[in-house]
């Protein structure tokens, strides 16, 4: 099964993508996570990406598209994947379409996790991310068992650099301008499904599994 997650920053794409990956045994491919791990490792790609990410801007397509194409051609993606944070621009969607058509594949679902802007800022300011494994929590809606400590690996939880309110506002503006048009793109392709992302996170997930099937 090949799935794309659509939605504003903080809509819950990553949270749901992880649950989908676990239930359907497919890799969770997050371009944001790949960039963050490159930043942590100090690679050249990471250094370039950080300049854009810290400002709430998109990393240029030239850097992003090739990276994602390499990832989905790896062996573990043969039977499917859930893409989280890609595509984010029409050129990215077109490149993906071309590549998967050449591979004789197709996208099964583009899941739009719908959350209005008003809810986003409070979600982002309460989000905490693990400095080691990248697991994410929310101080109110999805707390770790011990405050400030990752359930998965025991490392420290921090506010992401780009989750400061000013940067979140910029990311939302970029989303409306460049990424939202993908909703119509996938509607026309006949694979778009909408879920109400304002619900409690397990309810959002059960709506998604109703669509994807057992
Ligand atoms: P990326 O990491 O993809 O960030 P994003 O799209 O802005 O999404 P987020 O990770 O912020 O949010 P999410 O929707 O995954 O929400 P989450 O599940 O964490 O990208 C970061 C940057 O990298 C971009 O700004 C860009 O610079 C660059 N980049 C990445 N991909 C790119 C691309 N393709 N092209 C160009 N540049 C790219 O949930 C948010 C919070 O809410 C959490 O605390 C969570 O616990 C909580 N929560 C989740 N669901 C619920 C719920 N139902 N109810 C209450 N709280 C909830
Ligand atoms: Zn961790």
Automatic annotation (TrEMBL):
<keyword id="KW-0963">Cytoplasm</keyword>
<dbReference type="GO" id="GO:0008270">
    <property type="term" value="F:zinc ion binding"/>
</dbReference>
<keyword id="KW-0808">Transferase</keyword>
<feature type="domain" description="Adenylate kinase active site lid">
    <location>
        <begin position="127"/>
        <end position="162"/>
    </location>
</feature>
<feature type="binding site">
    <location>
        <position position="160"/>
    </location>
    <ligand>
        <name>AMP</name>
    </ligand>
</feature>
<comment type="similarity">
    <text>Belongs to the adenylate kinase family.</text>
</comment>
<dbReference type="GO" id="GO:0004017">
    <property type="term" value="F:AMP kinase activity"/>
</dbReference>
<feature type="binding site">
    <location>
        <position position="153"/>
    </location>
    <ligand>
        <name>Zn(2+)</name>
    </ligand>
</feature>
<keyword id="KW-0418">Kinase</keyword>
<keyword id="KW-0479">Metal-binding</keyword>
<protein>
    <recommendedName>
        <fullName>Adenylate kinase</fullName>
        <ecNumber>2.7.4.3</ecNumber>
    </recommendedName>
</protein>
<comment type="pathway">
    <text>Purine metabolism; AMP biosynthesis via salvage pathway; AMP from ADP: step 1/1.</text>
</comment>
<dbReference type="InterPro" id="IPR000850">
    <property type="entry name" value="Adenylat/UMP-CMP_kin"/>
</dbReference>
<feature type="binding site">
    <location>
        <position position="199"/>
    </location>
    <ligand>
        <name>ATP</name>
    </ligand>
</feature>
<feature type="binding site">
    <location>
        <position position="127"/>
    </location>
    <ligand>
        <name>ATP</name>
    </ligand>
</feature>
<keyword id="KW-0547">Nucleotide-binding</keyword>
<comment type="subunit">
    <text>Monomer.</text>
</comment>
<feature type="binding site">
    <location>
        <position position="150"/>
    </location>
    <ligand>
        <name>Zn(2+)</name>
    </ligand>
</feature>
<dbReference type="InterPro" id="IPR006259">
    <property type="entry name" value="Adenyl_kin_sub"/>
</dbReference>
<dbReference type="GO" id="GO:0005524">
    <property type="term" value="F:ATP binding"/>
</dbReference>
<dbReference type="InterPro" id="IPR007862">
    <property type="entry name" value="Adenylate_kinase_lid-dom"/>
</dbReference>
<feature type="binding site">
    <location>
        <position position="92"/>
    </location>
    <ligand>
        <name>AMP</name>
    </ligand>
</feature>
<dbReference type="Pfam" id="PF00406">
    <property type="entry name" value="ADK"/>
</dbReference>
<feature type="binding site">
    <location>
        <position position="133"/>
    </location>
    <ligand>
        <name>Zn(2+)</name>
    </ligand>
</feature>
<dbReference type="GO" id="GO:0044209">
    <property type="term" value="P:AMP salvage"/>
</dbReference>
<feature type="binding site">
    <location>
        <begin position="136"/>
        <end position="137"/>
    </location>
    <ligand>
        <name>ATP</name>
    </ligand>
</feature>
<feature type="binding site">
    <location>
        <position position="171"/>
    </location>
    <ligand>
        <name>AMP</name>
    </ligand>
</feature>
<feature type="region of interest" description="NMP">
    <location>
        <begin position="30"/>
        <end position="59"/>
    </location>
</feature>
<keyword id="KW-0067">ATP-binding</keyword>
<dbReference type="InterPro" id="IPR033690">
    <property type="entry name" value="Adenylat_kinase_CS"/>
</dbReference>
<feature type="binding site">
    <location>
        <begin position="85"/>
        <end position="88"/>
    </location>
    <ligand>
        <name>AMP</name>
    </ligand>
</feature>
<keyword id="KW-0545">Nucleotide biosynthesis</keyword>
<feature type="binding site">
    <location>
        <position position="31"/>
    </location>
    <ligand>
        <name>AMP</name>
    </ligand>
</feature>
<keyword id="KW-0862">Zinc</keyword>
<feature type="binding site">
    <location>
        <position position="36"/>
    </location>
    <ligand>
        <name>AMP</name>
    </ligand>
</feature>
<feature type="binding site">
    <location>
        <begin position="10"/>
        <end position="15"/>
    </location>
    <ligand>
        <name>ATP</name>
    </ligand>
</feature>
<dbReference type="InterPro" id="IPR027417">
    <property type="entry name" value="P-loop_NTPase"/>
</dbReference>
<dbReference type="GO" id="GO:0005737">
    <property type="term" value="C:cytoplasm"/>
</dbReference>
<feature type="binding site">
    <location>
        <begin position="57"/>
        <end position="59"/>
    </location>
    <ligand>
        <name>AMP</name>
    </ligand>
</feature>
<feature type="region of interest" description="LID">
    <location>
        <begin position="126"/>
        <end position="163"/>
    </location>
</feature>
<feature type="binding site">
    <location>
        <position position="130"/>
    </location>
    <ligand>
        <name>Zn(2+)</name>
    </ligand>
</feature>
<dbReference type="Pfam" id="PF05191">
    <property type="entry name" value="ADK_lid"/>
</dbReference>
């Amino acid at each position: 099964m090949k799935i794309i997650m659509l939605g504003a920053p903080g809509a819950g794409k990553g949270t749901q993508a992880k649950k989908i990956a676990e239930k359907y045994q497919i890799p969770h491919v997050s371009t944001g996570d790949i960039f963050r791990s490159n930043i942590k490792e100090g690679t050249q790609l990471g250094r370039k990406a950080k300049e854009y990410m810290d400002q709430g801007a998109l990393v240029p397509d030239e850097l992003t598209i090739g990276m994602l194409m390499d990832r989905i051609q790896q062996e573990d993606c043969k039977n499917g994947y859930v893409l989280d944070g890609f595509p984010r621009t029409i050129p990215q969607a077109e490149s993906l379409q071309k590549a998967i058509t050449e591979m004789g594949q197709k996208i099964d679902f583009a899941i739009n996790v719908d959350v209005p802007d008003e809810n986003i800022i409070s979600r982002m300011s309460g989000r905490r991310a693990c400095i080691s494994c990248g697991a994410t929590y929310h101080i109110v809606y999805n707390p770790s068992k011990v405050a400030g400590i990752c359930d998965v690996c025991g490392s420290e939880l921090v506010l992401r650099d780009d989750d400061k309110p000013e940067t979140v506002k910029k990311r939302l503006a970029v989303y409306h301008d460049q990424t939202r048009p993908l909703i119509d793109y996938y509607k026309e392709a006949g694979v778009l499904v909408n879920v109400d992302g304002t619900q409690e996170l397990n309810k959002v997930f059960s709506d998604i599994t109703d669509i994807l099937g057992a």
